[in-house]
Amino acid sequence: MNGEYLPIDEAMVSVNDRSFLFADAIYEATPVYAGRPFLLERHLARAANGLRALAIDYDESALAPICAELIERNGLADAEFAVFYCQVTRGAAPRTHAFPAHPVTPTVYAFAKELVRMTPGQWDRGYEAITIPDQRWARADIKTTGLLPNVLAQQAAVDAGVEDAVFIREGMVMEGTHNNVFAVIDGAAVTPPATNHILHGLTRAYVLELAETLGIPAEERSFGRAELLDAEEVFFCGTTTEIRPTVRVDDRTIGAGTPGPVTRRLYEAYKERVARR
């Protein structure tokens, strides 16, 4: 917390911090496998883009040594799966909608913790999702902490007894509440284009790279809810999601109702890549 390493229950943030008052902050979450962060440079580059978009004056390169130190201090060198989370806010200042009149020091908060990975049995059974109207702001590509619409959508999924929710904007598929979504259509892995309406997920980009390596047709294009429900396969991907098969959406069985061959090939390749790093 602001350069100090301490137990999480001792970390305190001012009530005047603009992340508390306005969600005026960006964040990143990087997966860590056996103590090694995965795609950290890409996460830091996206953090830099977010900091510039919000005009927060902070050098994102300072986060790399913080990540390494937190992995060591939390004993995660041998953990199969963990996450490094970091958040940079504009800082604490008297409440006004405009930026503080005088420069303030950004608040920097980070932690690392072990995660529970999907078991093979869970993965083989597949997961379920619902669709929900997209009520987010028009800059979902900036990874800010303003996630209330995502929270409400994910709670709708919880209330429905499923794992994920898919945002639908004007009839078109966007993404999940905390992950990106793919549909396998005519044998191709299809994902919505990287516009301002979705987060440009780094796992999403890596899945597209994997598909090319494996010779799996892949395409970034818009598609609607009807195509999603009629798809041969559906899967979500993200930092903590990895690659997760979805076998039912809105009570509609996807494909054969089991994880499909394209999703399985991509997931096996993903696991192999992170294991041999």
Q: What topology does this entry show?
A:
Elements: H1 18-22, E1 25-33, E2 36-37, H2 40-54, H3 63-73, E3 82-89, E4 107-114, H4 120-125, E5 127-133, H5 148-159, E6 164-169, E7 172-176, E8 180-185, E9 188-191, H6 202-214, E10 218-220, H7 225-230, E11 233-238, E12 242-249, E13 252-253, H8 261-275
Parallel strand pairs: 5-6, 5-12, 9-10
Antiparallel strand pairs: 1-2, 1-3, 3-4, 6-7, 8-9, 8-11, 11-12, 12-13
Helix pairs in contact: 6-8
Description:
- This protein is α+β, with helices and mostly antiparallel strands and 277 residues long.
- The protein has 2 domains: 8-114, D-amino Acid Aminotransferase, Chain A, domain 1 (2-Layer Sandwich); 120-275, D-amino Acid Aminotransferase, subunit A, domain 2 (D-amino Acid Aminotransferase, Chain A, domain 2), CATH 3.20.10.10.
- The protein contains 8 helices and 13 strands.
- It has helices spanning 18-22, 40-54, 63-73, 120-125, 148-159, 202-214, 225-230, 261-275; strands at 25-33, 36-37, 82-89, 107-114, 127-133, 164-169, 172-176, 180-185, 188-191, 218-220, 233-238, 242-249, 252-253.
- Strands 5, 6, 7, 8, 9, 10, 11, 12 and 13 form a 9-stranded mixed β-sheet that branches. It has a 4-stranded antiparallel β-sheet with strand order 2-1-3-4.
- Strand 12 and strand 13 (252-253) form a beta hairpin.
- Helix 6 (202-214) packs across helix 8.
- The model has no long low-confidence stretch (mean pLDDT 97).
**CA-CA gap between termini:** 29 Å
CATH uppermost class of the largest domain: Alpha Beta
User: What is the third-level CATH name, the topology of the largest domain?
Assistant: D-amino Acid Aminotransferase, Chain A, domain 2
Number of domain modules: 2
Q: Could you describe the largest sheet, including whether it forms a barrel?
A: 9 strands, mixed
Determine the CATH superfamily of the largest domain: D-amino Acid Aminotransferase, subunit A, domain 2
User: What CATH architecture label of the largest domain applies?
Assistant: Alpha-Beta Barrel
Shape: globular
Q: Treating each run of at least 4 consecutive H or I residues as one helix, how many helices? A: 8
Task: Indicate the structural class.
Answer: alpha+beta
What is the helical fraction, as a range of percent? Answer: 25-40%
Computed over alpha carbons, the radius of gyration is 19 Å
Q: List SSEs in N-to-C order.
A: HEEHHEEHEHEEEEHEHEEEH
- Return the average pLDDT rounded to an integer: 97
Number of strands: 13
- List low-pLDDT spans: none
Strand content: 25-35%
Oligomer: single chain
